[in-house]
Amino acid sequence: METKFVKETRCFKVSRVFPPDVNSYNTMFGGKLMSYIDDIASISATKLCRATAVTASTDSVDFLQPIRPTDCVSLESFVTWTGRSSMEVFVKVIKEDLASGERKIAATSFLTFVALDEHNNPTPVPQIVPETEEESKLFETAQRRAEMRKRRREESKQFADYLLTKYPWE
């Protein structure tokens, strides 16, 4: 079985926060940050499988600190766990006050991607090998998150059976 080290999937993105990036509370739009998160996570996933990688789920986005126009935002992503054709990607968001240099974890996120072959069928991915303490902790706790994802997906499918597809004006 092919393996890759977590560091081979690691990606970084740094952006300034400008006035158009904030909401009426003068904090960064959550949707803008979520777009950054999905973008960088997709790059990490593709670096692992070197194939098309599609978002299967955004398991969580936890907003921990507000991000203001006086900050820059740094995102770091890497693959933390692999299944047969799926990958869990972790994204860490750090805000840095540009005047003081103070840094804080502003958000964390877990996403799941699936690798697809040239016919858009799931294809096997290399197994991931953690090296650092942070990578190992995320790897060790990934199986529990995978089980929760599976349960949530089944519940979502059952719930979807109760939802209407008819427009209100029909």
Element layout with pairings:
Blueprint: E1 3-5, E2 11-16, H1 30-49, E3 52-63, E4 71-82, E5 86-97, E6 103-116, E7 127-129, H2 133-140, H3 142-160
Parallel strand pairs: 1-7
Antiparallel strand pairs: 2-4, 3-6, 4-5, 5-6
Description:
With 170 residues, this protein is α+β, with helices and mostly antiparallel strands. The protein has a single domain, classed as Hotdog Thioesterase (Thiol Ester Dehydrase, Chain A, Roll). Helices cover 28% and strands 36% of the residues. It contains three helices and seven strands; from the N terminus they run ββαβββββαα. The chain has a five-stranded antiparallel beta sheet with strand order 2-4-5-6-3, sandwiched between helices. The longest helix is centred in the first third of the chain and has 20 residues. The chain is globular. It starts with a strand and ends in a 10-residue tail after the last helix. The mean pLDDT is 96. Keywords: Hydrolase. Belongs to the acyl coenzyme A hydrolase family. One of its GO terms (molecular function) is hydrolase activity. It holds the Pfam family 4HBT.
